[in-house]
Amino acid sequence: MAFKGCTKIWMNGKLVPFEDAKIHVLSHVIHYGSANFEGDRCYNTPKGPMAFRLVDHVERLFNSCKIYRMEIPFTKAQIHDACLETIRANGLKDCYIRPIAYRGFSQLGVDPTGCPIDVAIAVWDWGKYLGPEALEQGVDVRVSSWNRMAPNTLPYMAKSAANYMNSQLIKMEAKMDGYVEGIALDTFGMVSEGSGENLFVVHKGRIITPPLCVSVLPGITRDSVILLARDLGYELIEQGLPREMLYIADEVFFTGSAAEITPIRSVDKIKVGEGKRGPVTAALQKAFFDVIEGRSPDKYNWLTKVY
Ligand code: PMP
Fold first, then answer.
1. Active-site residue, 204 included
2. How many structural domains are present in the chain?
3. Nearest-atom index, ligand 1, CA of 220
4. Which of 46, 74, 205, 276 has a 20 to 30 A CA-CA distance from 58?
5. How far is residue 256 CA from its own chain's centroid?
6. Claim to verify: residue 171 and residue 112 sit in the same structural domain
7. Per-residue pLDDT for the chain (307 aa), expressed as one digit of tens each?
8. Residue 46 forms part of a structural domain
9. Domain boundary residue, one of 67, 102, 124
10. Ligand 1 mean position, distance from CA 106 (Å)
11. Whole-angstrom Cα distance, residue 265 to residue 46?
């Protein structure tokens, strides 16, 4: 089964068996994409399973809903605890965590007011998102023919389901052409992000990531990597990147809860650097996994004990 280890799903305050976690086909979310969601991971550390930056993920979920005038009928603390409860109820140690808030069943006018805001949380064992070897070998990507959302169209600071129609176009195009992932530009032609990942480049010893104004999701892994890079003494700047920087950079990598820190070894069939994981990417991966797998101190309090 695609959802390995998922036997119970939290729905509006109750744990229900996997088979029963259903919604009506006339729910608002199905027709108009009216949902916001999160994707987080729980890691099995030597001190037991720990959820990564769960407080920040819950906060982003509430922010996404605030942008869309969706009032979640639970507090942040309740959703936070419900995520932990769902992991425990499924007995999982290493897993992906997917909370979603959506407009449910009531009526189908575009005006969503009046539809209930329902919340569900699922957890399952999800392996390496971009393939088992991606973290070491790197992935081959293309620049997408699709742009990310223009400013003031679909809010890209919200992790809303509707934005993933754009992501699906980027991802399908890349895969059909034999690439693992696509990198989209914004509507001004500047490098934005992958279909489900933020992007960083290393150029002449500096680490550069596109700023929030180029249609990127404010990624929590992105933020973690910015902190870790500065801790390691790297110069890290947020700066607009022209497409061609991807070709001449020494290293390029993706970040994301699902993708973690994944090196990019080629863009549009042009080798990035040596065409394999570079030393800065490797150093950041080590710093990241040392914290989340419990080998170095959790100085930013990123980890929450599950059991
Ligand atoms: N951009 C997009 C479009 C994404 O879907 C994701 C995954 N949530 C990211 C960036 C990375 O964000 P995070 O590190 O918070 O998972």
1. no
2. 2
3. 15
4. 46
5. 5
6. no
7. 789 999 999 999 999 999 999 999 999 999 999 999 999 999 999 999 999 999 999 999 999 999 999 999 999 999 999 999 999 999 999 999 999 999 999 999 999 999 999 999 999 999 888 877 999 999 999 999 999 999 999 999 999 999 999 999 999 999 999 999 999 999 999 999 999 999 999 999 999 999 999 999 999 999 999 999 999 999 999 999 999 999 999 999 999 999 999 999 999 999 999 999 999 999 999 999 999 988 999 999 999 999 9
8. yes
9. 124
10. 31
11. 32
